[in-house]
Sequence to fold (342 residues):
Amino acid sequence: MLLAGDVGGTKTVLAIYTPEKGPRSPLVTQTFPSAGHPSLEAMAEEFLAGVGMHVDRASFGVAGPVSGGMARVTNLPWNVDESRLEEELGLGSVHLVNDLEAIAHAAPFLGPGDLHQIQPGEPDPNGALGVVAPGTGLGEAFLTREGVAYRAHPSEGGHADFAPTDELEIGLLRYLMDRFGHASYERVCSGLGMPNVYGYLKETGHAEESPRLAEELAAAEQPTRVIVNAALADDPDPLSAAALDLFVSVLGAQAGNLALTTLATGGVFLGGGIPPHILPALERGGFLEAFRSKGRFSGLLEKVPVNVILNQHAALIGAACYGLETYGMDAVAVEAPLRGGK
Fold:
């Protein structure tokens, strides 16, 4: 049996899988507050003792960079090591993968209930898949079709140079370069980036800032959430609404860039924590207009399906997919046709 986990700075979800039931049907699942344990080893030991099951191998999606079989979890003082996990848990092997790469592994297994469709398109069953995930930062990954299965590839495309497409965005580029030197897409399309967009529009007089909202933002631990809530309120705050519209347009342009770069004719998935919360803005038209606005290749982008990932356990499903595939179960991917959301 396989132990799989979605390891995050706030919470960690652990589950046990078998090849027969596949990555969508865990035998048992449990969620833990990450800070309540000194290490992933201690948490896994507690979980396995509580469920009374023996596992042979493990795979974990980790919210942080993975290199050489080691990872440091973002916002958590854990150093996760494959070799140490193998030794302390008595497992045959352990594999770590970045959480966004885990989401990429899950993409082919997601169905209508897991997705919200932005553009139906005409998916190519042999085409690559792209994943763009604005959360705290901007993560990207892609998958290529190899025989009966998909192979996931990590990417740092979120740190690529921000390329403005109109006068308003040219001004945003200058604003970001003055403050940061290098202006990446993450400086715009992420939880870290939204306050930059808001600040730019405020300083350039695009709209007046509400005194009440200014107080909320000054006290907020997560200013992006405040801006999004104000933009999507029944009586939207004009400055916040303008910031969200600009955010969505730039996100659409970068999602289209990824689709062109990887030839993601199988589809593009929007993951991360932000897209499910801004669905009304994503559906207003600005996202798709920017996504498709690629000159001579606009026709190609019109055929690319675009879906928002709603399933909060996508990274866990992906960690299980990765584990089952790594341990010789590539054939599970044959039974995972791509489906559009609703």
Notes: The first helix runs from residue 40 to 51. DSSP finds twelve helices and 14 strands in the chain.
